Amino acid sequence: MDITITRTTQPKPKPADGDLSFGTLFTDHMFQMDYAPDQGWHNPRIEPYGPITMDPATMVLHYGQGVFEGLKAFRTADDEIRMFRPQDNMKRLNRSARALCIPELDEELALTALKQLVDLDRDWVPRTHGTSLYIRPTIIAMDPFLGVRASHTYRYYVILGPVGAYYAEGFNPVKIWVSKEHVRAVRGGLGESKTMANYAASLYAGEAAHRHGYTQVLWLDGVEQRYVEEVGSMNICFVIDGELATPELNGSILPGITRDSVLALGRKWGLTVSERKITIDEVFAAHAKGTLEEVFGTGTAAVVSPVGELKYDDQVITIGDGKVGPLAQKFFDSIMDIQYGRSDDAEGWIVPV
Ligand code: COI
């Protein structure tokens, strides 16, 4: 299927790298494609960035039948533009789509579309270390209908935006509040899919964390509220007595691509790496024993986000003197070195544009 390209006649001014934050600016073009039962996915096109007009009854606006992805493109010192593990994002998008009864995309076409779109807007990829072009593929239910069922028609679109750090703290340790009352997801639900609903479900507790002076929430499992699941919108890793441990993928945890990259690098470096159940009591007990060495989140947007403080009930613990731990630093540097082309892509994670 050929992708039709309509170029903008009114390119926008590009920001200075130093002014970049996360998720506020978008490039000149977007990709779109439609789904109808009798046509399948059709009319793939790149067009000037602009509003999507929809009927007020459009299903995604009422029942949240929508899934998305987040990935990045980087500019190397030689001015090459490259994406990090985009096939994995496309695979996960289809997995999320299946969970919400959305028809799957052709992954090859979807990857080609990403390449063509990023290529067309390549001048938007910033060059300073720590900046990148964030890529947001999204699928939404388009039937104008208020009955509760899966939509028959869909829109797939991809927008791009130059970004800097995700958290205002940058790579500095964040303070995290362990939520006992709120849960993000339960096994058998949507937790392992990247659906809009998961992020909506996280907002109330996120606001509560802010009110308590914390940056984000540490989510416990939805059944017993004992097992650690995620932190904010990221996966979570612990270094306990030399072991790199992260919660196993149990059905309510997102299979993060940065999570997977950290585990792969950890194994390659000869660390003891486990995906297992981790109770919040184990974390606090390890701290009491002096074996809780590091805690950090992993995700596309921030890559690695060190946790400096955890609050659970009345207990507040400081991790590693509130400083960035050596492994968090090493994962952060190593993944960014691969992304920006400063080290070999031995894992085959890079796709040039
Ligand atoms: C990420 O860590 O990449 C996320 O999931 C955050 C994103 C939803 C902004």
Which features does this protein show?
18 strands; 7 helices; globular; 9-stranded mixed β-sheet; 353 residues
Tell me about this structure.
With 353 residues, this protein is α+β, with helices and mostly antiparallel strands. The protein has helices at 59-63, 86-99, 107-120, 196-211, 257-268, 280-289, 326-339, and strands at residues 4-5, 29-36, 40-48, 66-68, 71-75, 81-84, 132-141, 154-163, 174-178, 216-220, 228-231, 235-240, 243-247, 272-276, 292-299, 303-312, 315-318, 350-352. 24% of the residues lie in helices and 30% in strands. The strands form two sheets. Strands 1, 2, 3, 4, 5, 6, 7, 8 and 18 form a nine-stranded mixed β-sheet that branches. Strands 9, 10, 11, 12, 13, 14, 15, 16 and 17 form a nine-stranded mixed β-sheet that branches. Helix 5 (257-268) links the parallel strand 13 and strand 14 (272-276). Helix 2 crosses helix 3. It is globular and about 60 Å long. The mean pLDDT is 96. Bound molecules: 2-OXO-4-methylpentanoic acid. The site of 2-OXO-4-methylpentanoic acid has 7 residues, from loops. 2-OXO-4-methylpentanoic acid binds at residues 70, 233-234, 299-302.
Strand content: 25-35%
- Contiguous runs where pLDDT drops below 50 for at least 5 residues: none
The amount of helix comes to: 10-25%
What's the total count of β strands?
Answer: 18
Number of helices: 7
Largest sheet: 9 strands, mixed
Mean pLDDT: 96
Element-level helix/strand string:
EEEHEEEHHEEEHEEEEHEHEEEHE
Q: Judging from the principal axes of the Cα atoms, what is the shape? A: globular
Structural class: alpha+beta
